[in-house]
Design brief:
The structure is a homodimer.
Chain A lengths: L3 E7 L15 H4 L3 H8 L1 E7 L6 E2 L1 H8 L4 H4 L3 H8 L9 E10 L5 E3 L9 H4 L6 E2 L2 E7 L4 E7 L29 H22 L2 H8 L7 E9 L6 H5 L3 E4 L3 H9 L3 E3 L12 H11 L5 E6 L1 H7 L3 H14 L10 E6 L16 E6 L22 E4 L3 H8 L9
Parallel strand pairs in A: 1-12, 1-13, 2-15, 10-11, 10-12
Antiparallel strand pairs in A: 2-14, 4-5, 4-8, 4-9, 6-7, 7-8, 13-14
């Protein structure tokens, strides 16, 4: 019987047939002896992360796969990112992504990613702790030009528009309410005041004076987007009864894990890119299984290579993953091992698609289907059939003998 | 990447095994080299137009397949037919089918299809524009004895019964409300008054005097059925972002296309019957692709032949379709080509059934499943699995890279 489980999510793994691969997908064309061997011993199937006809972003797909009802717990990327940056959120808080930008005197954006040289930390620390009409602002630096912003106060709403026009050489946008509530109107007002105050503060920073003297653009504006209300979310342990660790390189996935109260490890060499040290990630994952019930491993670069339209790179990276998976060849009998993706990222589209992804549940005692490969088309004939993201955790708990009884 | 799409709906294509075909269906028994070749290059599956256990009428099946939520947008056949006959509907209008009939002095129906010789136009034009207690009536002629009726006014409801008893030699029915609302009661009252006034007007027509002098039955009564409220419906372009043309011979399908704001072409030789000129329809469809994103082609006679209980005729017509489909052998790479049916019409039943129909999504870059034929039983093993009518447009948009992202 399974006592522990590993879930590997290979971001954007699914693809479509590629001409130069004779009509095979990168996963079909890649040489993957380990995954193919695992598939033979697995319950396999095809997985629609959010159901048929939905093209998932990574954040919402991960919530669904990790067993959280997205209608209840997904309120936008803001709260996930803010938690990932270390802001402890309280129910009712509004979280937003901030992007440091450079604007001219007409408030037209000259650089949407300002302050990258030094990172956003020395700029945004000047904005952290501001209070406007009883609303407290917490601002923490993210990677490069990014920041997390949290508003805490009474009567706040996440029904507010983005100030970020999402394109350069456009004027910044005034935040406006997106529904008719008093709360949305109030939140938009306060947020506009915060943005104006931030602009003043950033304009006057010594650091920006130095940049100007160097002939560089100052980081003098904080653009906002993705407002989301934090309604509270049960920890992974509360939700499923499993203690859990996260092994990831890319910061969004660490944020998701923190958001769900997982133990988040910093892995040397885990970069979130194709050069990432997968052996190190897998070794640390196996180590975590000594004390944890569940380990979530995230592997990013397959998605990035799909977005680059680079099937050769994606194929090579899949082979790198498969090679590192030799470490999973001799797992103890009480370890369930699940491999899937959070969505397809076809090289042809250079974007996420709604195409389903293969999934396998591997380990001693599952109803294995004896498939001869792990891929987008072999797994159609697996023993599991077609499932959705929300079916994964119940099936893991089922295989672990931990699913609550329905009826009496 | 697909930029354009063709959707071919072969009405009533699905069937059940036929004794004289050695237990094969008409589609399985027919010689269909073109469709079989397309199937090899396609994502195939089985499609339940309205979901399992639903036996669909053609109108509602088409709405589902064309990507409209039927709970929201299907309010009966009345509004679709009235739009098809050229009545511009407004929100809150009630539309009904009218059938010209002949009644005797006891109001017993002697002919349910009166006035066929001249068509309904010279009769119903006398009823167009009537006003009863503030409710305006628009009446337009349909094919043969048919008409479209629209009621416009305040406080109208579509919860009213049919005056048409649906059988000859029965007395006409009084319209009654089918729920307890004031609106239904009011609508039934007004409609009964309209029917009585229509009877008076039709009785007195010169045209009917001539018919009586000829020893023929007069067209002296307008039977009503299928009351439906028009709640507004987004155009196909608004709904999916795709400009669309409709290539159909049968008037109901042109009506559906007009209802959805498609460009509706009049095709020479497209009769909606087995003698229809399919080459012409397909050629014009390909021409439309020069300017339109989406072309909907409807082929009617397979359904009619099923309803006639004529498997040989259905098989021959399927072979005629396949032969004409040679025109689709060399579509440009950016054209997605979808073939399916709106429901099964088993010859044995002589009626629609709930049996699923095969579907294929054909074109460069789809996850093709290498099936060796297109049929009710081969497509079970396709890469798509079992889908519903409502899944079709999202999958087309997915393959075109046009599906909106869920999450951020």
């Amino acid at each position: 019987m399974f006592k522990r489980a590993i879930l590997v999510i290979i971001d954007g793994l699914g693809d479509r047939p590629i001409d130069e691969f004779a009509g095979l997908t990168p996963l079909e064309f890649a040489d993957t002896p380990n995954m193919d061997k695992f598939a033979r011993l697995s319950e396999c199937g095809m997985m629609y992360p959010l159901g048929r006809g939905k093209r998932p972003a990574s954040d919402i797909a991960h919530l669904a796969i990790l067993g959280y009802d997205i209608e209840t717990y997904y309120t936008g990327r803001g709260p996930i990112e803010a938690t990932g940056l270390g802001i402890e959120m309280k129910e009712g808080d509004i979280a937003l992504r901030g992007n440091l930008a450079s604007v001219d005197n007409e408030m037209v954006i000259k650089d949407r990613r300002a302050g990258r040289g030094s990172g956003s930390a020395p700029f945004v620390k000047e904005l952290d702790g501001l209070e406007i009409e009883g609303v407290h602002f917490f601002v923490k630096p993210g990677a490069a030009h990014r920041a997390g912003i949290v508003m805490r106060g009474k009567n706040l709403s996440d029904a507010v528009s983005d100030s970020d026009p999402n394109e350069p050489n456009k004027p910044v946008q005034t935040v406006s309410p997106t529904d008719d509530s008093k709360e949305a109107k109030f939140t938009a007002e306060i947020l506009n005041k915060f943005i104006a105050t931030s602009h003043e503060i950033l304009q006057g920073l010594k650091l920006n004076e130095f940049l100007r003297q160097d002939g560089k653009l100052p980081a003098n504006y904080l653009l906002t987007r993705w407002a989301g209300k934090y309604n509270g979310v049960p920890t992974f342990k509360e939700q499923h009864g499993l203690s859990a660790s996260c092994i990831a390189g890319a910061w969004l996935y660490k944020g998701i894990a923190k958001y769900l109260g997982m133990r988040v490890l910093n892995i040397p060499g885990a970069t979130g890119m194709a050069n990432t040290d997968l052996e190190m990630k897998f070794k640390i994952a196996l180590g975590q299984l000594e004390t944890q019930d569940f380990v979530f491993i995230h592997i990013k670069a397959a998605d990035s290579l799909g977005k680059d339209g680079n099937p050769q790179g994606k194929k090579a990276f899949i082979e790198k993953i498969d090679h590192a998976m030799k470490l999973f060849q001799r797992l103890p009998d009480d370890v369930l091992f699940v491999i899937t993706a959070d969505h397809s990222t076809p090289c042809e589209l250079r974007a996420h698609s709604a195409d389903p992804v293969p999934i396998m549940f591997c380990g001693k005692g599952v109803r294995a289907g004896k498939l001869d490969a792990f891929s987008e088309r072999t797994c159609i004939n697996g023993t599991l059939g077609r499932i959705e993201g929300k079916d994964i955790m119940p099936h893991i708990l089922n295989l672990m003998g931990r699913l609550p009884l329905t009826g009496s």
